[in-house]
């Protein structure tokens, strides 16, 4: 398999790729490519190219036309879990095809994310996209309080909020495999769960409460389980 | 919610629970229970009791009758990923209802697990069962080479092997939601993938090759995605 590398649009000029020194170092010293050998450059927005390494950078030899994206856009509003749990969520849900991740500071969120976290999460999403062979890198929004995040929503996506210990319908039963929505937004809670106010506000913004099964899933597991289910329904 | 604690059968005598000193310390100092307050004791095999803390241990006040188990037995044969990835697999798949985990040393497995790993994994499974409110703690087998593990299988479970970059059927299409198997076994590969010999041997032992979608899932993500799909099909 060819090594994959995310580049910015400014690094591509006609059929040439201008490599940053650290990228060139990585390709030659770690991946151990020599001049004339190939790698794949992706712009993270759906385009990819097979590139030949040359003494002055890279030369595009052909476009990559594969499509490994889900047929719909999935946005996850994820209440930030404790510790580094969101790192795992970014990694796993990127592999499972998520489009956008909204890190949420819910009423009961304990973590106050540091400024540099967003940079780190975006780097993880980029690496996960390279590894799982997507051409698109999921967008990761700056952390927002839940009520602000839902007030800012402008799309007309099908919206769900996962609530623990409820008797609502399972997410599976809210999605018709023969007629899946083109945009889905799903919100998941943190360790302490949603407050009543958050659930009521979500319902007022057209979120439908759903369950994910009988057992109590941790804040890290719930978004991964959701993406696994949606990807299965979309790609079966 | 009441705090949950796994006990061994020998700790239960009629309607009394004999607490180990570290359990008593935890209940009183960390969970901050006082005499007369309640917790839940589970034996990890499907039984649970509501217990009142007393000066001499615990007193069973009633049985827990809830059933949060999947309606089938799911065994996962998981090729050990790098680093501590199997810890995450134990935690997440326990929450999603797995019955048995078989850590596999595949031909391309890099990790040679240390002796004390099995003790650690079983402790994680126990804690995850407490947390997600199961009464059963999944069994975790000692690590085995893949070929040995499949030769030792004696059940007549429906068997699948997840293979990356193939054109086989999606796992979803191999499971009829209206007639799910009572026993399912699924094998997942490590970072380097299965060898041809491993896939051929699995097929000879009635494993059906399946895909998990278009993107390449890491060794950590694949078993979690599988359990999320099976739990959704079983509990929808």
UniProtKB/TrEMBL annotation, chains A, B:
Its EC number is 2.1.1.193. One of its GO terms (molecular function) is methyltransferase activity. The keyword Isomerase does not apply. Residues 25-57 form the Ribosomal RNA small subunit methyltransferase E PUA-like domain. It catalyses: uridine(1498) in 16S rRNA + S-adenosyl-L-methionine = N(3)-methyluridine(1498) in 16S rRNA + S-adenosyl-L-homocysteine + H(+). Gene3D superfamilies: 3.40.1280.10. Residues 69-230 form the Ribosomal RNA small subunit methyltransferase E methyltransferase domain. InterPro entries: Alpha/beta_knot_MTases (IPR029028), PUA-like_sf (IPR015947), RsmE (IPR006700), RsmE_MTase_dom (IPR046886), RsmE_PUA-like (IPR046887), tRNA_m1G_MTases_N (IPR029026). Its main location: cytoplasm. It is found in: Cytoplasm. CDD domains: RsmE-like. This is Ribosomal RNA small subunit methyltransferase E.
């Amino acid at each position: 398999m060819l090594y994959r590398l995310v580049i910015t649009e400014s690094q591509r000029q006609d059929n040439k790729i201008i490599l940053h020194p650290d990228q060139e170092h990585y390709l030659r010293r770690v991946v151990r490519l020599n001049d004339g050998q190939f790698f794949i450059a992706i712009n993270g927005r759906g385009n990819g190219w097979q590139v030949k390494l040359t003494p002055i950078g890279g030369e595009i030899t052909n476009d990559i036309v594969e499509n490994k994206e889900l047929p719909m856009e999935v946005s996850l509003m994820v209440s930030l879990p404790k510790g580094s749990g969101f790192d795992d969520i970014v990694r796993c849900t990127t592999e499972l095809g998520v489009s956008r991740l909204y890190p949420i500071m819910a009423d009961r969120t304990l973590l106050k994310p540091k400024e540099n976290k967003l940079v780190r999460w975006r780097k993880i999403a980029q690496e996960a996209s390279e590894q799982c062979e997507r051409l698109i890198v999921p967008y990761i929004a700056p952390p927002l309080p839940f009520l602000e995040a839902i007030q800012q929503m402008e799309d007309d996506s099908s919206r769900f909020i996962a609530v623990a210990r409820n008797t609502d319908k399972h997410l599976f039963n809210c999605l018709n495999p023969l007629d899946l929505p083109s945009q889905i937004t799903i919100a998941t809670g943190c360790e302490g769960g949603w407050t009543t106010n958050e659930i009521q506000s979500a319902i007022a913004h057209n979120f439908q409460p759903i369950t994910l099964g009988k057992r109590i899933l941790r804040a890290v597991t719930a978004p991964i389980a959701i993406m696994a289910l949606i990807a299965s329904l979309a790609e079966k």
